[in-house]
Structure formats: structure tokens, C-alpha cells
Write a structure and sequence with these properties.
The complex is a heterodimer of chains A (about 160) and B (about 240).
Chain A: H1 6-17, H2 25-36, H3 41-51, H4 55-64, E1 76-81, H5 84-88, H6 91-102, E2 115-120, E3 132-134, E4 137-139, H7 144-156
Chain B: E1 6-11, E2 14-19, H1 24-30, E3 54-57, E4 63-65, E5 76-78, H2 82-98, H3 113-121, E6 144-146, H4 156-165, E7 170-173, E8 180-183, H5 200-204, E9 210-212, H6 217-220, H7 225-233
Parallel strand pairs in B: 1-5
Antiparallel strand pairs in B: 1-2, 3-4, 3-5, 6-9, 7-8
Helix pairs in contact in B: 2-3
The chains are: A alpha+beta (about 160), B alpha+beta (about 240).
Chain lengths: ~160, ~240
């Protein structure tokens, strides 16, 4: 991690704001994820070093909360709701269709890093079950055809970032 | 913190006086009443995870873990009722079913606290479906080996590493049934940058999860090590 990285400067600001206190670990992890998008091992080691915390403790906290991501997420994120209503209404078939169509595994990303497939427990849209969230847009009463088409539309407008 | 005042309570009908702040477990132990424990270890911070030291306190429908509950004046504690016995048997069975606990092929056979407690409480079968985990064994360290399939997550190794050795190489990752003991950033033990190889984790492990390669288990296990060190640490 280069020290002249602008993101590192931002993180440093957050660390300073919390006065490098170990009790602020959670807030700092939150901010770090906001800045970097995900928390990789180097970053965790960096934070552990800045706060004088054992690396194992930082890792333990990070993996305890499902909110923290340790893998780089795709540019677009499709989140399927696994709440009771959506489950009963067949979100499972939609998920299977997405997996097959875009060749990715649940919880993972496509090889080109454009799309991630994640899960959540109930987004509070049970009346529109099954619900799938594509980036910030909720797709209610979803069918696999609609979802796949919308994902394709979004992906088409994406530039190739693999360079 | 302990003060000079003394309190009096009844444990199993016996009148007992202890300094204020003493836990029920210690009060009982000092007076010859043994409460079964797995995660608690003299010299380490109480954890209250194994739920084997649960006791009844007259006037409350709840059960209290003796290792973390401070004794109160006038308390009437029961440590060995039929109900507690059933709960303890259940707790042992749950621990046994959670991972792979097959004594016949375990390095700690006959020197295992889980096995000893199961014998003592008369657990002759496991009523739950067993969850045979298939975690790879990490023997990358020069002599320390961890078999996470045998781990009961008592966190003794973590506490001894943090409090006694002071490096906190070990910790827990994830949660619920996916919880595992990790070294640093979930590295192989051999790659751990902070482990000092002090062996105390192997000494205090109640089961055969952490052991020393090529060393007889009778030689490795020394569960009094934490008490021995803490008792002498604050010496002036």
C-alpha cells in the first residue's frame, strides 16, 4: 500500500479523529470500508498497527460482522432477499438463474469483477416479494427474466476496468 | 475488586464466608465443593462460555454461571440438583456433537477434561446429530499443532496468550458454528509473526485441540501454569 495513496490520507484523518484509540476500532473499520470499498489483509494489518491492537483481534472483529467485506466487490452488486416472504415466492430460482447466466457463485463475483451476487435477510419489501436489489434499485415482484435483463442493461453501460 | 469486607452465603446448605467480590465458583471451591467447569481456569479471566458451572440460586428461576457470578450476602446456592445434572449432561452432549470428538483416536485420550466430565456426569451417548467438521489440521509451526475439529471454543488458549504471555496471537474469527481459533490474520501457525512459541496454549487446552508434536500429552498438559504465573506476577 503506497503511503501517498489518497485513500491512505483519508484513513489517516479518520485515525487521527479517533485519536488512535483502540476503542474506536469499529468506527475505523466502518470508515475504512467506506474509503477502500473492502477490507483486505494489508489494510487490517495497517489498522492493527496504527491502533496497537493484536492483528488477530482486528481480524476477529472484522469477520464477526457480516457487514464487513474482505473480498473486493464487483462494480455492480445484485442482492437477493432471502427473507421468508421472498423465499416462499421463489427467490431461489432467480438466484440460480443469475448464477447460471453470469457464471458466478453466490457470495462471489464474476471473473471480470463487474458483478457480485450477495444476500440479505429481508429488506422490508415483503409485499413485493420476491425482491432483488440491483445496486440501489429495488426490483419488486421479480422474475428471473426481468432481473437478468436489468442486470444485462446495467452491465452494458460499464466500462472494462480490468486494465 | 476485592475489599476487606466479608460476606456470608449458603452453598449446598453449608454456611460459607468469603471476601466480597469472590465468585460463587471460587467460594465453593475454597470450601471443598467442586462445581464442574471446562472454560474456567484459575489465573485467567472468567469467560462463562461452557455453561457447565451453572448453579441455582434460591429465589430466581434463572440459572447462573458460577464462574462469573459474584457471591452475594445471604445467597442460597444449589450446585448439584437433578435439574442441573440434566443441563450439564445436555451441555456435554452439545459440545460433543458440535465437532469431532472421538476419544479413541484423540491425542488427549485419558487426559481430556471433556472426556473426564462426560464420564463423571454419566454421559454415555450423544442424543444429537453429530456434526463432523473437516477442518484441516495446521501443523506448520515447528512443534505446536492445532486440530480445530477437536476445539470446544473455551478460549483458554486465547486468554492465556493474551493475559499471561501478553502477545494475543490467538483469537476467534467469525461466529456461531463457523467460529474458529485463528493466529494473527488467520495465518498458518508457522507464518504467525507474533507467536512466541511459549507452549502455554497447549498446556491449558482442556481437550486435544492444541498439542505438541512428538511430546507425550502427559508432559504437555499443565493446566496450573496460568495460576502459577499470575500468583507470582504481582510480587513486589
Amino acid at each position: 500500500m503506497a503511503t501517498n495513496d489518497i485513500r491512505r490520507t483519508q484513513l489517516e484523518r479518520v485515525l487521527k479523529k479517533h485519536n488512535y484509540q483502540e476503542s474506536a476500532l469499529l468506527e475505523i473499520l466502518h470508515s475504512a470500508q467506506e474509503i477502500y470499498g473492502y477490507l483486505d489483509r494489508n489494510l487490517l494489518m495497517d489498522i492493527a498497527g496504527s491502533l496497537n491492537l493484536p492483528p488477530s483481534h482486528v481480524y476477529g472483529v472484522t469477520t464477526f460482522y457480516s457487514f464487513f467485506k474482505m473480498k473486493k466487490p464487483g462494480q455492480h452488486i445484485v442482492t437477493a432477499c432471502l427473507g421468508t416472504a421472498c423465499y416462499v415466492k421463489g427467490v431461489e430460482q432467480i438466484v440460480a438463474a443469475i448464477e447460471k447466466e453470469f457464471n458466478l457463485k453466490r457470495g462471489g463475483s464474476t471473473a471480470d469483477g463487474k458483478l457480485s451476487l450477495l444476500f440479505t435477510r429481508c429488506i422490508g419489501a415483503c409485499a413485493m416479494a420476491p425482491a432483488v436489489v440491483l445496486d440501489d434499485q429495488v426490483i419488486g415482484k421479480a422474475t428471473k427474466e426481468i432481473v437478468i435483463e436489468k442486470i444485462k442493461n446495467v452491465l452494458e453501460g460499464t466500462k472494462d476496468e480490468s486494465v | 475488586m476485592t475489599t476487606n469486607s466479608t460476606i456470608t452465603l449458603k452453598i449446598d446448605g453449608v454456611q460459607i464466608s468469603v471476601p466480597e467480590g469472590t465468585t460463587i465458583l471460587k467460594a465453593a471451591k475454597n470450601n471443598g465443593i467442586l462445581i464442574p467447569t471446562l472454560c474456567d481456569l484459575e489465573g485467567l479471566t472468567p469467560y462463562g462460555g461452557c455453561r457447565l458451572c451453572l448453579v441455582e440460586v434460591t429465589g430466581s428461576p434463572k440459572l447462573f454461571p458460577a464462574c462469573t457470578t459474584p457471591a452475594n450476602s445471604g445467597m442460597e446456592v444449589t450446585t448439584n440438583s437433578e435439574r442441573l445434572k440434566n443441563y450439564r449432561k445436555m451441555a456435554i452432549q452439545m459440545l460433543m456433537s458440535e465437532r469431532v470428538h472421538i476419544c479413541a483416536v484423540c491425542v488427549a485420550n485419558d487426559h481430556c477434561e471433556l472426556q473426564a466430565l462426560a464420564n463423571q456426569l454419566g454421559v454415555d451417548h450423544v442424543a444429537f446429530e453429530r456434526n463432523f467438521t473437516r477442518e484441516p489440521i495446521d501443523s506448520s509451526h515447528g512443534f505446536l499443532v492445532i486440530d480445530r475439529n477437536r476445539c470446544i471454543l473455551c478460549t483458554r488458549c486465547i486468554r492465556v496468550c493474551d493475559k499471561i504471555e501478553g502477545v494475543h496471537t490467538l483469537d476467534l474469527k467469525k461466529r456461531s458454528k463457523n467460529t474458529e481459533v485463528i493466529m494473527d490474520l488467520d495465518e498458518f501457525w508457522g507464518d504467525s509473526c507474533s507467536c512466541t512459541g511459549c507452549r502455554k496454549c497447549a498446556k491449558v487446552c482442556p481437550v486435544g485441540a492444541i498439542y505438541i508434536e512428538g511430546e507425550a500429552i502427559t508432559q504437555t498438559k499443565n493446566r496450573d501454569v496460568a495460576e502459577f504465573i499470575t500468583a507470582r506476577r504481582n510480587r513486589k
